[in-house]
Amino acid sequence: MEPTMTNPTASSTRQLGKLVILGILGLGIGVFFYFDLGRYVSLEALKANRDHLLEFTNANFTTAVVLYVAVYVLQTAFSLPGGAIMTLAGGFLFGSILGTIFVNVGATTGATLAFLAARYILRDWVEQKFGKRIEPIQAGFAQNAFSYLLTLRLIPAFPFFLVNLVSGLTRIPLGTYI
């Protein structure tokens, strides 16, 4: 049996890719907190800007939808606070049916990005570091991934962002996660 050789260039490229993604995540989170952008994702801000938001949405519906979904994707992908307010804003700005659709598109896309980032950046390290200790969790997810995820999503004790990240560390297929 021949020893397996790893390609140093591929390994370096992969490491660089991980560093770039970590840098983007760090920058995004840093910008959010440095500029206190959370003040715009609050019930008070929604109330204070009610008329302006509705006026903008009515005058620029497509632009409003694109901006709303993009902000929701970023908020979820970067695991930033404000998901509940964004959900309320979706219903307020676009109505129940369209708001629900836009919330689901933004939340699902953002959660998928967070899942993939956790999988790409951290999974190998977690498996090396914790090895045997996480095997029962991996086995449980492998057997009952849908049930595990549904339970975690429906129990409010588990924050949405944490479910996204932990799921990325498991071996469940992306299709099952979504």
How would you describe what is shown here?
There is one protein chain. With 178 residues, the chain is mostly helical. The chain has one domain. It has nine helices and no strands. The chain has helices at residues 8-34, 43-48, 50-59, 61-77, 83-94, 96-130, 135-154, 160-169, 174-177. Helix 4 packs antiparallel against helix 5 (83-94) and helix 5 (83-94) runs antiparallel to helix 6. The longest helix has 35 residues, at 96-130.
Secondary-structure map:
Blueprint: H1 8-34, H2 43-48, H3 50-59, H4 61-77, H5 83-94, H6 96-130, H7 135-154, H8 160-169, H9 174-177
Helix pairs in contact: 3-4, 4-5, 4-6, 5-6, 6-8
Share of helix among residues? over 70%
Succession of helices and strands: HHHHHHHHH
* Global Rg: 19 Å
Strand element count: 0
Strand coverage percent: under 5%
Q: Outline of this structure?
A:
The chain is mainly alpha-helical and 178 residues long.
How would you describe this structure in keywords?
single chain; 178 residues; mainly alpha; 9 helices; 0% strand; globular
